[in-house]
Amino acid sequence: MSQFFQIHPRDPQPRLIKRCVEILLQGGVIVYPTDSSYALGCRMDNREGLERIRRIRRLEEDHNFTLVCIDISQISTFAKMNNEGFRLIKSLTPGPFTFILEATKETPRRLMHAKRKTIGVRLPDDPITEAIVTDLGEPLFSSTLIMPGEEEAMADPEDIRDRLEKDVDLIIDAGILTYEPTTIIGFTGDNPEIIRQGKGLAENLG
């Protein structure tokens, strides 16, 4: 049975953030808010947690997962960036973007795309996410909370509780979040390109 925390979306309570991080450190899987939707998260070295997320979403082996980071320097540990990429990501973050980059040797193979050896990274503009990743001290392994057969992420914490309370260790209630998918920008070709246009606007890219 999962725990259920009501956390203020703009001014998160430090004691609840601390408890959330403790659950992650103990191997837990959590449901938490971002600036685009609710998401599933666990520590990036939590193999069992990763598999639990796969089972919840019924994901294939080649699914693109995301590392939610605290700043651009943390991104550079796990993803390769040239100067142009660094400047573009810095100008767009924090915000509702997912960046697909070539993974570094420090990135665990199980987190990469199975064929392309890429990794998705995010710097969301969300106080709860920021507080969790800051206290955790490492990126959060993450996947949007879109259930099998559905096209949009779950939005109502009470619905999430009814459906997932036996499958996750913590559900954070930050209110109803309307699903607005991130804009995905790929950096694996000669120039950055928008793979999916979503909530985030990158005016310099076509």
Structural account:
With 206 residues, the protein is α/β, with parallel strands linked by helices. 28% of the residues lie in helices and 22% in strands. The protein is built from 6 helices and 10 strands; from the N terminus they run βαββαβααββαβαβββ. It has helices spanning 14-25, 47-57, 72-78, 83-92, 127-136, 157-164; strands at residues 3-6, 30-33, 38-43, 66-68, 97-102, 118-122, 140-144, 170-173, 183-186, 193-196. Strands 1-8-2-3-7-4-6-5-9-10 form a 10-stranded mixed sheet, sandwiched between helices. A hairpin with a 6-residue loop joins β9 (183-186) and β10. α1 packs across α5. 41% of the residues are buried. The mean pLDDT is 93.
Total helices: the number is 6
Our Rg estimate from Cα atoms comes to 16 Å
Report helical residue fraction.
25-40%
> Would you identify the regions where 5 or more consecutive residues have pLDDT less than 50?
none
Label the CATH architecture: Alpha-Beta Complex
The overall pLDDT average reads 93
The CATH topology label is DHBP synthase
Q: At the first level of CATH, what is the class?
A: Alpha Beta
